[in-house]
Amino acid sequence: AAACDGGAPVGAPEGAALRALVSFVTRASAAGMVPVYDLFNHHNGRRNVKLTLAGDGVRLVALEDIPEGDEIYLSYGIKAASTMFRDYGFVEPWPQIWTWTDDGSGDRYSFVLFPGGVVAINPTEVILKEM
To answer: Is 104 helix (H, G, I), strand (E, B) or coil?
Structure first.
């Protein structure tokens, strides 16, 4: 691959460089790498904090009162189950989003599994944002 600055070609990252790249790609937020952020668990249905950008860095903001001893949950984002598994190594019990593209037509399809056996087929952005 060519260097970003148009210089001599560079090879694929190896060793520590590859581990650093994978860590950044799977853990970076809009603010870049945020220390301690990785320690919070993801759960779209129980999210009680969010990360916000501030002039002096980032802030973790509580979305509700969190009793002492309760777990802090944030959201890694609404992503397809296959993406969650690839990037984070797990799939949520709910909501699970499954997407695929029809090879023949190129049409994209998705469905979302909710608690209680509820399924949304090709949900709109409005439905996904309300999760």
So the answer is: coil
Contacts of residue 51, Cβ cutoff 8 Å, sequence gap at least 6: 29, 31, 34, 37, 58, 59, 60, 61, 74
Distant-in-sequence, close-in-space partners of 44: CB < 8 Å, separation ≥ 6: 75, 78, 92, 95, 131
Q: In tens digits, what is the pLDDT along the chain, a chain of 131 residues?
A: 555 666 656 677 778 877 777 776 666 666 666 777 777 888 877 889 988 888 877 888 999 999 999 999 988 877 888 888 888 888 887 778 888 888 999 998 888 888 788 888 888 777 766 66
Q: Residue 100 contacts by C-beta under 8 Å, 6 or more apart in sequence?
A: 108, 109, 110
Q: Given the structure tokens 């209680």, which residue do they identify?
A: 116
Residue 60's identity, in one-letter code, is L
- Cα(28)–Cα(42) distance, rounded to whole angstroms? 14
CA dihedral over 123, 89, 94, 118, signed as positive or negative: positive
- Of 74, 96, 95, 86, residue with least CA distance to 29: 74
